[in-house]
Amino acid sequence: ADAMNISRSKVTRDLQSLISAGMVEPMPNEPTRWRLGPKFVQIGLAHMEGMARVESRVSEVKNRYTRLPS
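The structure assignment produced for this chain is given below.
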């Protein structure tokens, strides 16, 4: 909080919101440290899958329009 010039109470409120949303969770046996929660990971994986579909489609279009005529 101090390094970012944000009040500790604001950080605590924001952290509680992130916990409620499943975005972060406390580290086991280290209650003052946090890690990404399952929801954050699910969003990241869904994004990666979506990007793979887009990349595949772009590749198809690129191949269609860059082939040399026979």
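Interim note for the steering committee: The chain has a mean pLDDT of 91. The first strand starts at residue 24 and ends at 27.
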